[in-house]
Amino acid sequence: MAGHGATLLLLLGLLPAVLVAVRIPGKGREVLYLAKGDSVKLGCPYVLEPEDNGPQGVGIEWIQITPERPGPENVFLSYQDHHVNYGSSGLQDRVAFVQTDPGQRDASIRVADLQESDTGTYQCRVKKNTVAVHEVIVTVQEKPPVPQCWSEGELIEGGSVVLRCFSRGGTAPLAYQWAKLAEGYGGGRLPAGALQGRSPGDLVIRSLTWAHAGTYQCRVTNRVGYSVCQLNLSLGPRGRQAGIIVGSILGSLLLLSLLGLLIWALIARYQRKECQRACSDCRSSTGGTMPRPCTACGHHSYSPHGISYMQCQHGDSDERAAALLCNEGIRHQVACPGL
User: In the prediction, which pLDDT does 331 show?
Assistant: First the structure.
C-alpha cells in the first residue's frame, strides 16, 4: 500500500507538466515576405485548456530577434494583469494588439508601415501554467517601382525591333515578363518571332508583320509585389518609308531651285541697275543725243586702255549706243561711237 501511495503522489506531481495549459493552434513557425510600407497582422490565437484553473492571469510577450541586434531579448510589446506595455524599440509607434483585451484568447498584433529594418524573427509567448510559443519569420523588401518601357529599331514591315523594360529600384531578384495584350486588357501570349534578349527586360521581335502590332505589357516582379508598364507598337509599310525618303529628296531639290531663282533675280537686278547707270553715262557723253531710253544691255568684249564697254539697245530699233564704264572709278572722256 505504501508503494501505491508513493506512485500516486508522483503522478499528481507530474500532472501539471503533462497537461498543456496553453496551446497555440496552427503552424509552429510562419515565414512571410512583406512589402515595405505595408501593414501586416501577426497572428497568435491561443486556447486555454479546461484543466488550467489556476488563479494567475495570462501573460503575453512579443519578442523581436534580429541579427543586427545581438544581446538580450527585445520585448517590444507585452500584456500582464490587463495592462499593455510597450518596450523601447523602433516598433512602439507602429505596433498594437488586434484585440482590445488580448487576454481573451487572442494575442495577435498588427504592425504598420513596415520598414526593411523590421526584418527578423518574431516570437509570441503566452504564459499560464506553461508557456506556448509561436514564431513568425518576417522579411521586408521593397517592391519594384513602375518600370520604363521603350522600343529600339525599325518599326516597318520586315524590320526588327527590341522592346526594352527597366525598373530602377526594388529588392533583387527582379523578374521581367513581356506579354501582348488582347485589345489592351488582360494578359496574353507573345507572338511568333519574339525572343528573350540579352538583358532580362529585353524582348526581340524579328521579321515584323502587322500581326505584331498592338499593345505590349512588361511586368516586373519580386517576392513582395509587381509593377507594369505598357508600350504601343504600330508599324509602317516599307513603301511609306520609301515615300518619305523620296519626298524629303524632292523637297530639298525644290528648296535649292528656289534658292537659285532668288540668286538669279538678285544678279539680274544688279545688272539692270548697271545698265541704267551705263545709259545715263552714255547720254552725258553724247550731249543728250539719245532720243530713246535703253531697255536692254550687253557687255562688250572690246576693252581698249583698260576701259570696259557696255552696249545699250533701244526697244524698238537696232540703234545702239556705247556706254562707257570706267574701271576703279576713273572716268575717261571718250565719245560714244555711232553704231
Answer: 40
Cβ neighbours, 10 Å, residue 312:
26
CA distance 129 to 49: 11
With CA atoms as reference, report the closest residue to 235 among 209, 207, 267, 272: 209
The pLDDT of residue 52: 61
Residue 186, sorted as left (phi over 0), alpha (psi -120 to 50) or beta, turns out to be left
Query: What average pLDDT does range 86-108 have in this prediction?
Result: 90
Mean pLDDT along residues 192-220: 90
Residues 6+ apart with CB under 8 A from 17: 130
Contact criterion met (CB below 8 Å) for 209 and 157 = yes
Confidence of residue 17 (pLDDT cuts 50, 70, 90): very low
pLDDT higher at 54 or 213 = 213
Neighbouring-strand partners of residue 32: 138
Does residue 318 register a pLDDT over 80? no
Contacts of 183 (CB under 8 A, 6+ apart): none
Report cis status (omega within 30 of 0) of the bond before 173.
Answer: yes
Residues 6+ apart with CB under 8 A from 210: 157, 235
